[in-house]
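ugh ok so i messed up the first submission bc i forgot one of the chains. this is the corrected input, ALL of the components this time, i swear. 902 residues overall. if the numbers dont match what u have on ur side tell me asap before i send this to the collaborators (the ones from the other lab, u know who)
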Amino acid sequence: MKTVQNNNTVSAVSLSGPLEFKPKTSGTIPRGLTFLAVAIIVTMLLIILGNIFLGGIGTINWEFLTHPPENGMEAGGIFPAIFGTVALVILMVIAVVPFGVLTAIYLHEFTRPSSKITRIIRVAINNLAGVPSIVFGLFGLGFFIGFVGGGLDSIFYDNEGPVWGQPAIIWASLTLALLTLPVVIISTEEALRTIPRELKEASYALGGTRLQTIGRVIIPQALPGILTGAILAVSRGAGEVAPIMFTGAAYYLPYLPGKLNDQFMELGYHIYVMATQSPDVEATKPILYGTVLVLLVLTFILNFVAIYIRSSMRKKRATV
Amino acid sequence: MQDMEKFQLKPKSRFREYLGEKIIMVSAFTALIGVLLIFVFIFKEAVPIFTDPEIQEEASLDKMVFKQQYYEGRDPKFSWQPNSEVPKYSLFPLFIGTIKAAMVAMLFAVPLGIGAAIYSSEFASRRVREIIKPVIELLAAIPSVVLGFFALIILATFLQNVLGLTFRLNTLNAGIALGLAAIPIIFTVAEDAMTSVPQSLREASTALGANAWQVSFMTVFPAALPGISAGVVLGFGRAVGETMIVLMASGNAAIISTSIFDSGRTFSATIAAELGEVVFGSAHYSVLFFLGTLLFVFTFAINLGGDMVLVRLKQKLQGKT
Amino acid sequence: MTASEKRNGTPVYKLVVRDIDFYYGANKVLHGISMDIEKNRVTALIGPSGCGKSTFLRTLNRMNEIIPDTRMTGVVTLDGKDIYRDFNDPSTIRTRIGMVFQKSNPFPKSIFDNIAYGLKVNGIKDKAIIRTVVEDSLKRAFLWDEVKDILDHNAYMLSGGQQQRLCIARALAIRPEVILMDEPASALDPLSTSKIEDLIGELKKNYTIVIVTHNMQQAARISDYTAFFYEGVMVEFGPTKELFTKPDRKKTEDYITGRFG
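and heres the new structure output, hopefully the right one now
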């Protein structure tokens, strides 16, 4: 055994035989502290949900869901807001799903993951997901209403007053479509990854073209993932308020939206208006709670369905 | 053999194939084009601040950044009052309000988010983890307007009663609700970073005589640290950009105060509160889009940075499995 | 070997294994393994993939306990003490029985911190001791000359062979009495492999070594004893020379002559 030169300290350690180890603490403290974090989060969630449930359940009945607001929103129901929200997210899904799915297919089937284009698109997707929702609102106002809508008006309507260049359900839903695009892309991609390569190769080996393989093998196989993405997008879109405040949502409308350039009422915006602009907050409180509960139940049902589809998809992959 | 000859395969349409592939390719650029358009169209409306002398009269970069003397004989000060007789566009009060709210949110969300991520990744049994993760997803699914409602109606009253506060709506109140919005991001990114630490490192640590918690805190946590920090940064980005919660719960007073028990007004809430009443093309309009540009650039930088850290961490850890 | 052990001539058994059964869930993967492992000798475990040799190795330092849903019966003693029942904290036993893995697995830390890790988790904070032990361990693993100037560099910078020797040095730093090696050279090039084999020959002077390998030439070159495993059963165990030249069992002969893999 070579001896170790050690100039600065006279070391007490022998170079053979065991070292003197200290007994370890059992780790109860770190375990307990991190568990406490979980417990606090869960408790806060339960408080929020419990409070909204208890506060809102008394208000909810058939009439509340099917009648318009009355008496300055202090009475009546929220039917126009429900209708507007549903119409909004349907338009949004129609716009976002094709683009989201095709982007995912392009990233997965047309390019290598390391290629420059893929990386740039991925950076764009991640950034899009991080853009604050109020910025989407500004964008919807500047681009869809000002540029596209205003442009249409000046070309087709000779600027006889705004037809398209004003807040409308179509612009709100397109703004939300851009906001939820990353959700659809990411979900679809996860599904694409589960498709065994052999399946695609089988299609090519039988003479299928790339387009045929995509249409007949890849998209059908990825359907659960696409569905999950669409549902999560709806859940996200239904809850966003900032992007639609200036692009189409209205405080109160005596009619339901019937055309693409109509304004609309929406649940989230309705909540915001009632909570902050109501002349008599106490009087609107039951309706406010009821509306929050409806929005929350809607979002949670959508999320539960999405989580269920996704977990059964993952199980399937695990057994493949 | 003769029967076989009758069996003819149809030639495929080359054109359809070509068109289909082109459509897919073009669609794939939606996200990229979207991000670019967002920047262009928001910045475009903010440009008059830099070019239009008439608007600069009211709101120039100088006026937004430095102290201004608005009335003769008074001290120069920072002030945000776009609708007053002499419009004032100092961004400083908004900056204070934004940072203050985001910091409170982080103080609340970072320990909880990381703590829960450590518990879920390191200590929880598989069954408990299968419960924790959907619970956090549920928290993430709560629309921010609902969190804003919760802070405005319930939390604000509770905090005021418990702490004996003067102002019902304040930064603390908004910050806690903001924190609830940031927790899922921090949790998800941090948990993902820790679970992607390869099993071989855990085994190496165990074989050297480390306890379960030592493996977690001395091996897994340091190895995942870049990812965990990225989660914190992304959570901060979310807290800065979040709108409805602060709009509803912070009181929105554009004052210069470092106390978390005072009200505060953030960039995002300012846009949301004022854009509805602003005159199209006015100085105020341009300034609001300028605020939007700042928010966009800030979150863009944060996301880009966080993203790069995460990609590099994954490569590093996977290169070693 | 100490003088007294040499004088009376009977072998000293460091590890004694009796009737090990091991289960993954309901699946029994080890069937009644018993073995005496001699001190300061190299014992090789050979057999086709999935025969249970790695699982068996991991029962010797309680590494299997970190895998959920596993169960074991039987006894393993270290110097006469039952490692499962006489030690409350499994980490204590792992400081006495070290382990080197199939793929080198340095921590994403500096070379120095990799070696120091085991000392730190076991409560040694004295910097002078740590520095001395780091240097000593690297020398024992014949890595010191290659890394002495780059101790603060990240361990990932090292080549595959150097990384594996770093992992050996890291295991040596906590002064184990036994070193378990799970195919330590299987991912390495021939040159690095021969360095590791030389190192093992050197290490057995001071340590008891149990090594899993599915390279039979390697087992023949470096080990004193060899155990042949097949489908969770230990088919044959004896001095390496005898096992490779005149095996008792047909199965062993078939395997070492390459009739099945």
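quick check: The first strand of chain A starts at residue 69 and ends at 70. that seems consistent at least. The beta strands of chain A are 69-70, 75-76.
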